[in-house]
Amino acid sequence: MAYFAPTALNDALSLLASEDVSIIAGGSDVFPARGQAPMQNSLLDVTRIEGLAGLQWGPNGLRIGAATRWSEIIKADLPDCYAGLQAAARTIGSVQIQNSGTIAGNICNASPAADGMPPLITLGATVEITGPDGVRRMPVDEFVTGPRQTHLRAGELVTAIHVPPLPGYTRGAFEKLGSRSYLVISITMVAVVIGCDATGRIDFARVAVGACSPVAKQLTGLEADLIGKMPQQIQISTDHLAPLAPITDIRADAGYRLDAVAEQIKRAVGKAAISNG
């Protein structure tokens, strides 16, 4: 096997076309996943490619380079609507993992429990994909198609995440449930972006849930029902949670996950709405 660390995007695309490589962007998922087995493919490290790291504001919102590390997101001066994404970043592994793990690596690993997915969905994020046919984009929730499965085609890699402008009065929040406070895979997690009008009623709502279905899910029915409600009056019904498909495993059973998600939504909405007030 070989290790490639190009600094130019065109060089990386050429290597993807000519070599049998596995892309790494921090390596915090790739190396633990192989266990004791030796690496079979060569490695293409994309973290040194010019333009693939950092946060840049433009007229169409925020561009987050694919190789941007979680610690950079935690430390960034971002609007309140990003509070959920920054809270999620602080729960990802240890400080060492946050210093190496990247936002695109978290998405491309396509774990049902990827902490970055729910907040990115609530932010309306899109994934920028570059390959031999040029650049294309798609919503982040469409990019991940199932456990360890994405819409990446042969010869492509993720180059950025784009977040459009959101109303300035909105705020995000994130709730994560695990068997302990740190260094844990999520049992359930919820991200929201909430805005309230002058009377304190919700007039902007996005809600997404992770670790309760093969891919993170946006609860559009619940979002619609939250509009016009006071945060403390919201009720979560089984219909609201119908898009979810939690499993029973060693960490929790399906019924417990649904009960936990309902409570997490109330907490996250309350936290974001209080900040709005």
UniProtKB/TrEMBL annotation:
It comes from Parasedimentitalea denitrificans. SUPFAM superfamilies: CO dehydrogenase flavoprotein C-terminal domain-like (SSF55447), FAD-binding/transporter-associated domain-like (SSF56176). SMART domains: CO_deh_flav_C. This is Xanthine dehydrogenase. Keywords: FAD, Flavoprotein, Oxidoreductase. The keyword Ribonucleoprotein does not apply. Pfam families: CO_deh_flav_C, FAD_binding_5. Residues 1-168 form the FAD-binding PCMH-type domain. PROSITE patterns: FAD_PCMH (PS51387). It comes from the Bacteria. Coiled coil: none annotated.
